[in-house]
Design brief:
- The chain is an all-alpha fold.
- The protein is built from 67 helices and 6 strands.
- The strands form 3 sheets. A two-stranded antiparallel ribbon has the order 1-3. A two-stranded antiparallel sheet has the order 2-6.
- A hairpin with an 8-residue loop joins strand 4 and strand 5 (about 1370).
- The longest helix is centred in the last third of the chain and has 23 residues, at about 1500-1525.
- The termini are far apart.
Length: about 1500
């Protein structure tokens, strides 16, 4: 019933009465009788209030007609009073509300009304202090709430009004503050946005200018940086953090909200907008720019500059819209995708950049600033704290943001973007690479990538690191700079660290040696900063960081071996500015800004930091991270500091004398000295001419304060704080001076001469680590201390007392062992005592301590250092102590007695340093060493079946045998009487040769274990080399025995041949051996270990480069010796296949030594050999066969390189002991014209060259020819072949067993060259003869001595020095012109040979004394302080004076010598006289030898050939075993 009553009531309810407007006062006036303004305002106010109270549902619309007409009158709409206009607008909007949907105005009246509203009322809202601001707000709310604004769409000419409305609102909300300083209220902004939204929603189309206005608001993002490089982001200063935008501009937000509220309509409008712009640009995609010259008017042209500017603007807009409202671009992305396929490269590049930024969420304001990697931050960064360091101080406009995933929403376009990595244009690949860096570093705008997409992008980035264009490689490095440290570890490191070949980090490390400076600078700086930032995690043992970055220092330091001057300067800066910055740790830290920001350098503890200890820890961590080769480079860089300091000190003295050009007397001499100093220092810098000019500019400044500051930097007596402060002040003074560019030359020199890394301030901490082994740094600390003691013992002056005290406290006894690590401290003390014997306290307690270490110290090599220290003063007291030590040793002088190895080690040193003390015990010592040790075999041969055992696993017997051999050799080395030494050397010499010939076997009764034999023959060969550093011993080494020793380079045991070659290289580098020993290294042509062969090959090139620069044809003359060695090689054969094996030796020599300038001289030596008789086997013609083969190989190489052949015009001499002259000129002529090689050699050589090219795949060796262009190809004059004579019968003495040749495969040499030692299917004999790739880069190297000079004509001289002195010159009577035609030139040749070579700057003289197993041998360091004073007649820097403290750099690092070889210390100490007085102390000059009679015919080669074959087979078996393992 209730519903019914309700219905009845509703029916019965009367209609609600309408309400009419009561206002009836006039609002308009007749002309000339205006209504007063105050009265008019009151009327309008009353009308406005009444209208606002009326309800639309009950109002009588007819009652509003009159008022509507008055309000729309121009008298009110254009009234000059602001209040009248404001109240009029309020009344009008109320009438529009009451009369909706039918407005009581004509179209023209509506136009006037909206004109008033848009041009006056709404703009007034942007001044909140306006007196009628409330009325203005009322008008705005009414238009937006009741959507009266949509009436604008029906007005004629509404387009211009809409444009004015949108622009007025956008400009207003983002405009400046009003005069009162007030900003527009947020409610007003939201209402205006609602007003504009109503227009967009109701309109079917918007005017193009309105779309322009909306989209233009997105470009407000680039208002502050539109003219800057997108990658040019200066670091944000802490004090400027408040200037950074925290939110988008108001107009930007309004446009963004409108697009997101009405995505469908805006997508349609925006799509049409960009279609007009992009299609207009892409329509020119295929048209070339030079279309003006084309006859075809319809042919397309490329976009003009103005077109590209417009396109770039539109693409910036697209990026920002994607960041703000990506939904409205759904129809635009395909248009950008189409640009990726455009023919025009500029369009493709623009599209690639745009899509990359869209995927990354980067807007028009550009990318965010690159993350800062501060290598000097302390405490170092922790991964878990990185987010805390990333304060939200970034500009909101540059913060990457993507609300939707681009790869998922536009999958096809994403893959089209990926394909641009292979674009043919390098600039596009570089752009793509940069884009990928941003995508990965921003995680695609924060929304993330799928695992597959991320892996694909990382792989592409890694590929671009190896692109063939430097711009792309540089872009790839820069792209990795975009990653935060955490991202590097989490995104790039999972694919492998720098040590894993093929990983992106490893490829980045490869760029440290890029051929382009910009690439390697960027790569090396980035890697070093990553390592420095990660040191905190490396110390903490974080697995991920360790696996990723622990190998960074090694990869950086290995660049040292590239021997490039620019790279060396870069390396200095990286070490002292990134790896271990001089500003590390920053003790004085800036306070953080008040906004709570935290940087990488966190607030430090209240306790003061020990900066020296922190730096020392970083240094130890750096050294610990290095591998053996990089460690040698690092130590070599530090070892050069004293020499460079002396050079700089000399320069400063010359500057003082020069006095800025004001001199009283000796001006010419002083100026000349200054120029020489500048020239000498400039040779170590990349641009010597500019460097010299800069250095002279500094001298002309005559700034005495700067001179003193440099002395503070280089002085070893100054602590690190003094050095650092002095360097900082010096840099400031120079930069503030007239010529700040001089710093480019001075800074690298100061880094090298300054006492920065190994500073006295760091020693105490390093010594503490050596005792405590904290963080596992004990071994590294000992190694550093040992290096300092050898290279720069002056630093120990303040700590030597503590070192000695530590040794006394830990001294061993017969019942108590010492800590094994103490031996390194003992070694450091020994080295210091050798240089400063007076500073070591040789009191009774310390002497007894040294005796205890000699008798009971462990390991046994402690006895060596103890004896060296004990005898360092060489006074009577030390001899008494040595006598006491020997007596205690002889009390129980039996094999196997307690501490027997210590006794042998001590006796070994006593024999060398105190031979007078051991004279009385000679018989007992010789009996023990020879009869009881060397001739006895106590170990069962079956105990060890391997060929080699590492040092730590050697049994006592082999250690004793090695020490016994050293004792015998040291006895000889300590003798000053040459004749006595030669006489007593005969049995020792015979024993050493027997050990080599018998492969380490001396015993006749019981077989020696294999690993013992390997050690013994290696040591025998090395000891022979050591003896041959003295002339009288070298004279004992006949040519036959030399060949025997040389074959150790092809020993079947890898460790034996490698150690032997390293020793040969070491002595040759130091100038201790004659030039004939260079022949040995060319036997490595078949070395199966590719890496080792490559390093030796690079070393040969560096030596060749050095000799060439010093005008010394040393290696060219080796051709004659190499032919002799090959002629008597046990594997020589005359068959063409066997000759091709010899050709590989020759090619190894020619490719390593030959250049366009010296090829004629090499050819001359090869040609001269053919016209001689073999002195070792006069009946043999092998040397002539090899001569023809060498000449053919030289011709092939010259043709291959396209060089012009320059025939050598002079005459050359040949080694007298190897070759003899023919009996007559007729015989020589016949030999010269006859062809000794079989037919088909040229073709086989061609095949050999092709095989080398296919297998090695290395860079062209033209790189080592100073980059000179190839000369016009010129062929050598061909020689007609003579008919071959019948071959003589082959005897066993001339050719190995025929079974070897039967086993030889009949395949082509090219196929044979495939044998690389790793393939099981390769014949055993080819294992050693594997053609492996070798590094093609040419490296400049250093020489530390006045090197061997091979004579051109006549006999040269070779000077020997005893003890620590080094030899220089050429061999005594070693070479003589074999042909009588060259005899008249002999006196002139002698004169030339004696004349010192002029000193010449070695462009590769940056390297120090390094072991030669690295890619390049070390280069010369500064000779000494007086070096710049040398005149033009001065000889080249002599290693004896230049690198006296670097003599041990190589031998000390070899495993087999590190613990047992006394050479490191012995060679530095000249032994006292032993035996008879020497006849003529000092240099022994060679006399020309008479022509030797024909040598005795060589012994049958059967034994040697069998041994060589056995070595090859053994090497193959060993490698097969390794493969199976």
């Amino acid at each position: 019933m209730a519903p019914r009553r309700s219905a009845a009531a509703e029916v019965e309810e009367p209609e609600e009465e309408t309400v009419s407007l009561q206002f009836d006062e006039p609002l308009t006036w007749r002309p000339g009788k205006p209504i007063p303004i105050d009265q008019l305002l009151k009327r309008l106010d009353r009308l406005s209030k009444e209208l606002s109270e009326l309800d639309q549902e009950v109002v009588d619309v007819k009652s509003l007609v009159k008022v509507s007409k008055d309000l729309a009158h121009h008298q009110l709409l254009t009234h000059k009073d602001k209040g009248v206009r404001a109240y009029t607008a309020c009344c009008i909007v109320d009438i529009l509300k009451l009369c909706a949907p039918n407005a009581p105005f004509t179209p023209s009246q509506l136009k006037d009304i909206f004109h008033l509203t848009i041009t006056i009322i709404l703009p007034a809202l942007f001044d909140p202090s306006h007196p009628y601001n409330n009325q203005h707000k009322y008008v705005l709310r009414s238009l937006a709430e009741f959507k009266s604004i949509v009436l604008l769409l029906d007005v004629d000419g509404s387009d211009s009004l809409m444009v004015n409305l949108f622009t007025a609102i956008f400009d207003g909300v983002s405009g400046a503050k009003s005069a009162s300083g007030e900003q527009v209220a947020k409610d007003v902004e939201f209402t205006m946005q609602e007003l504009l939204g109503a227009l967009i929603e109701e309109s079917s189309s918007l005017p193009a200018r309105v779309i322009d206005a909306i989209l233009a608001q997105f470009l407000r993002a680039v208002a502050h940086g539109a003219n800057k490089d997108r990658n040019d982001h200066a670091p944000i200063d802490d004090n400027q953090a408040t200037l950074i935008l925290k939110e988008e501009p108001e107009a930007y937000q309004m446009a963004k909200n409108l697009c997101n509220q009405y995505p469908e309509k805006m997508a349609r409008f925006v799509s049409q907008y960009f279609s007009d712009v992009i299609l207009e640009g892409t329509s020119f995609a295929g048209r070339p720019k030079d279309h003006e010259d084309s006859d075809d008017e319809d042919a397309p042209t490329g976009p003009s500059e103005s077109d590209l500017r417009e396109l770039k603007k539109s693409h910036r807009l697209i990026r920002e819209i994607w960041k703000a409202a990506p939904q409205i671009l759904q129809n635009v992305v395909p248009q950008v995708d189409a640009e990726l396929s455009a023919d025009n490269a500029s369009l493709r590049q623009l599209a690639t950049e745009t899509l990359g930024d869209m995927i990354s969420g980067i807007g028009a304001a550009g990318p965010p600033p690159r993350p800062v990697l501060d290598p000097a931050a302390y405490p170092p960064l922790k991964l878990e704290d990185e987010e805390r360091f990333e304060e939200s101080r970034g500009n909101i406009l540059t913060t990457p943001l993507s609300s939707i995933s681009f790869p998922q929403t536009h999958h096809a376009t994403f893959h089209s973007f990926i394909s641009r990595k292979n674009d043919k244009v390098a600039a596009i690949r570089a752009t793509w690479t940069t884009a990928v860096g941003y995508i990965l570093s921003t995680s695609a705008g924060g929304i993330g990538l799928s695992r597959d997409d991320e892996a694909s992008l990382i792989q592409g980035l890694g590929e671009k690191l190896s692109d063939n264009d430097e711009k792309v490689r540089l872009a790839a490095v820069r792209a990795i700079e975009l990653f935060k440290f955490k991202d590097v570890i989490s995104k790039l490191a999972p694919g492998g660290g720098v040590d894993k070949e093929g990983s992106i980090l490893s490829t980045l490390a490869d760029r440290c040696r890029d051929r382009k400076p910009a690439v390697r600078v960027a790569a090396m700086s980035l890697l070093s900063k990553l390592w420095a930032v990660g040191t905190g995690e490396l110390l903490a043992g974080h697995e991920g960081v360790t696996a990723a970055l622990s190998g960074v220092p090694t990869r950086i330091l290995n660049a040292f071996y590239a021997n490039d001057l620019e790279l060396n300067v870069l390396l200095d800066r990286v070490i002292y500015e990134c790896l271990v910055p001089m500003t590390y740790p920053p003790i004085k830290k800036k306070k953080d800004a008040s906004n709570g920001k935290e940087s990488q350098s966190q607030s430090q503890a209240s306790a003061p930091l020990d900066g020296d200890a922190i730096r020392a820890q970083r240094i130890l961590l750096l050294v610990k991270s290095l591998d053996q080769g990089a460690k040698k480079a690092f130590f070599a860089m530090q070892a050069r500091q004293p020499q460079f300091a002396q050079v700089v000190d000399t320069f400063l003295k010359h500057c003082d004398q020069y006095n800025g050009g004001v001199m009283d007397e000796g001006a010419d001499k002083k100026t000349s000295n200054l120029n020489k100093s500048a020239q000498y220092m400039a040779q170590f810098l990349p641009d010597p001419v500019k460097a010299k000019a800069d250095i002279l500019k500094f001298a002309k400044m005559n700034d005495r304060r700067s001179y003193n500051l440099i002395r503070y930097v280089t002085g070893q007596q100054h602590d690190f704080k003094t050095v650092h402060n002095a360097l900082k002040e010096l840099i400031k003074r120079i930069l503030a001076g007239k010529d700040p560019s001089v710093l480019d030359a001075l800074l690298p020199l100061l880094y090298r001469s300054g006492c920065i890394m190994f500073n006295r301030s760091h020693l105490s901490t390093i010594m503490e680590y050596s005792k405590s082994d904290e963080d596992g740094m004990g071994a590294v600390a000992h190694e550093v201390l040992n290096e300092i003691s050898q290279r720069n013992p002056d630093l120990f002056k303040a700590h030597i007392g503590q070192l000695c005290k530590d040794l006394v406290d830990q001294a061993p006894t017969a019942t108590r062992e010492n800590d094994p690590v103490v031996v390194e401290t003992l070694k450091a003390c020994s080295t210091y005592a050798r240089k400063y014997p007076k500073d070591v306290p040789m009191d009774k307690e310390f002497s007894q301590t040294m005796i205890n270490y000699a008798l009971y110290g462990g390991p046994p090599r402690a006895a060596k250092y103890a004896v060296n220290t004990l005898l360092s003063k060489k006074d009577q007291k030390s001899m008494v102590s040595a006598t006491d030590l020997l007596k205690r040793i002889m009390k129980d002088w039996t094999y196997g007695s307690p501490f027997f190895l210590n006794k042998l080690t001590a006796v070994c040193q006593l024999e060398y340093l105190a031979p007078k003390v051991t004279e009385d015990a000679d018989e007992e010592i010789l009996n023990m060493t020879v009869q009881q040790i060397l001739l006895q075999v106590r170990t069962d041969e079956l105990i060890k079946l391997t060929d080699w055992v590492e040092d730590n696993d050697l049994d006592e017997e082999i250690q004793a045998k090695c020490l016994a051999l050293r004792i015998l050799v040291n006895r000889l080395r300590s003798m000053e009487d040459v004749e006595e030494a030669k006489e007593k050397a005969k049995p020792v010499w015979k024993m050493l040769i027997k050990l080599i010939k018998e492969e380490g076997e001396l015993s006749k009764g019981k077989a020696t274990p294999k690993h013992h034999r390997s050690r013994l023959r290696l040591l025998a060969a090395k000891l022979m080399l050591k003896l041959c550093t003295q002339k009288h011993f070298d004279d004992l080494l006949s040519a036959e025995n030399f060949n025997t020793v040389a074959l150790i380079a092809q020993d079947s045991v890898q460790e034996v041949r490698h150690a032997f070659i390293r020793k040969v290289q070491k002595y040759l580098t130091e100038g201790k051996l004659r030039s004939r020993y260079y022949t040995i290294v060319f036997l490595l042509a078949f070395e199966p270990v590719t890496d080792f062969k490559n390093r030796v090959e690079t070393w040969i090139r560096s030596r060749a480069r050095h000799f060439q620069e010093n005008k010394q044809p040393v290696l060219e003359a080796i051709m004659a010796r190499l032919l002799s060695l090959l002629a008597h090689h046990p594997d020589y054969g005359s068959e063409i296949d066997e000759l091709m094996e010899n050709a590989r030796y020759l090619m190894f020599y020619i490719t390593s030594v030959g250049t366009e300038s010296n090829l004629g001289l090499i050819y001359k030596y090869a040609e001269r050999v053919k016209q001689t008789v073999d002195s070792l086997d006069p009946e043999s013609g092998r040397h002539r066969v090899l001569s023809d083969l060498a000449q053919a190989a030289i011709r092939k190489w010259q043709e291959k390189k396209g060089w012009a052949f320059i025939a050598y015009p002079g005459k050359v001499g040949l080694p007298l002991g190897l070759y003899a002259a023919l009996k007559s000129h007729t015989e020589a002529q016949e030999a010269a014209e006859k062809q000794y090689t079989p037919d088909g050699v040229d073709e086989r050589l061609e095949e050999l060259f092709r095989a080398m090219d296919r297998k090695k795949k290395r860079k062209s060796s033209d790189d080592r020819h100073d980059g000179q262009p190839q000369a016009k190809k010129a062929k050598l004059p061909s020689r007609p072949k003579e008919p071959k004579e019948p071959k003589p019968p082959k005897s066993a003495s001339k050719k190995p067993s025929s079974t070897r040749s039967k086993k030889r495969p009949s395949s082509k040499p090219g196929k044979k060259a495939r044998a690389d030692g790793d393939d099981d299917g390769v014949a055993d004999k080819d294992r050693r003869r594997s053609g492996r790739a070798r590094g093609g880069t040419s490296y400049i190297e250093r020489d530390s001595s006045e090197d061997d000079e091979e004579m051109l004509d006549g006999v040269a001289e070779w000077d020997y020095f005893s003890g620590s002195e080094k030899g220089s010159g050429d061999e005594e009577g070693e070479e003589s012109e074999a042909n009588s035609e060259s005899e008249p030139e002999e006196p002139k040749a002698k004169k030339l040979a004696k004349k010192p070579a002029p000193a010449k700057a070695d462009s590769g003289s940056e390297l120090s004394d390094l072991e030669s197993d690295k890619e390049a041998e070390a280069e010369p360091e500064p000779k000494k302080a007086a070096a710049p004073k040398k005149t033009a007649k001065t000889t080249a820097p002599d290693s004896g004076s230049e690198l006296s403290d670097l003599d041990e750099a190589e031998g000390g690092d070899e495993k087999e010598e590190k613990d047992n070889d006394e050479e490191e210390d012995d060679d530095e100490q000249s032994p006292p006289p032993r035996g008879k007085a020497a006849n003529g102390k000092g240099k022994a000059k060679a006399k020309p030898k008479a022509k030797a009679p024909p040598a005795k015919k060589a012994a049958p080669a059967k034994t040697r050939g069998t041994r060589a074959s056995m070595r090859r087979k053994q090497a193959a078996d060993d490698e097969m075993d390794e493969d199976e393992d």
